[in-house]
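Researcher: Let's do a round of design. I'm pasting the structure tokens now; please hold your answer until I've finished.
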């Protein structure tokens, strides 16, 4: 009976240990996908607006020069007349003030979409953009540039941390497979000690459910919601099972 009690206590320790580790892994997963979603939305919305100086340069020629800048994904020319029509649709009263002198005072513009890799050196990119002839001013939202840059850093940081988590699990399993054991013996041990694997896997599964329960209300508070794919959670659960099994193999050899 005493031995059985120690066994049950061992299962609980494995469960709680793996639960704690897996919960952190699930938090990293959720944050990674959430940050990536927000970054994608900001990237889609962000524009750099080149205001034409009303020079004699050909519009298509000017558009091609802007498009040749490094990291430019797309360039859209919006004429002054089109901009005025958009303004009339949004605010008819304000559009009248633009025509107060009897002519359209709005400038021709080019809306530019950038690749993600530009934001790390945005100031240098801006200096190159300012050299384009026929452009009087370049406008953009500095706050969005800073937000995208930080989100890219956080996403990559979380990705590296999760990759290190998986690498540590793989290394742990490899060490267990190569430490004083033959493959046939290990396969036998995996069958014999399956309860320890299941204890770890159950700890991971509980962590997945706990994390989901905690973050699920955000779905109703924010339009931005992205839960990781099922396969990611399966990786966490299987990793938890191997952690439990490996810890027990270490225990019985020391």
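Researcher: That's everything. Go ahead.
Model: Designed sequence:
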């Amino acid at each position: 009976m005493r031995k059985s009690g120690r066994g049950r206590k061992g299962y609980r320790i494995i469960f709680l240990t793996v639960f704690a580790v897996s919960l952190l892994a699930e938090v990293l997963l959720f944050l990674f996908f959430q940050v990536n979603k927000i970054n994608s939305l900001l990237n889609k919305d962000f524009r750099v607006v080149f205001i034409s100086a009303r020079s004699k340069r050909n519009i298509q020629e000017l558009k091609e020069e802007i498009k040749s800048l490094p990291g430019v994904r797309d360039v859209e020319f919006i004429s002054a007349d089109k901009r005025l029509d958009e303004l009339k649709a949004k605010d008819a009263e304000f559009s009248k003030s633009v025509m107060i002198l009897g002519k359209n005072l709005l400038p021709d513009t080019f809306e530019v979409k950038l690749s993600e890799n530009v934001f790390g050196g945005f100031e240098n990119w801006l200096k190159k953009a300012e050299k384009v002839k026929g452009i009087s001013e370049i406008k953009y939202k500095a706050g969005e540039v800073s937000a995208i840059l930080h989100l890219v850093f956080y996403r990559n940081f979380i990705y590296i941390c999760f990759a290190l988590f998986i690498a540590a699990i793989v290394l742990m399993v490899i060490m267990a497979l190569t430490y004083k054991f033959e493959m046939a013996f290990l396969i036998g041990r995996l069958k014999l000690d399956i309860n320890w694997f299941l204890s770890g896997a159950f700890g991971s599964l509980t962590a997945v459910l706990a994390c989901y329960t905690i973050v699920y209300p955000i779905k109703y508070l924010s339009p931005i919601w992205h839960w990781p794919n099922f396969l990611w959670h399966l990786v966490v659960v299987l990793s938890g099972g191997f952690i439990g099994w490996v810890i027990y193999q270490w225990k019985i050899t020391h």
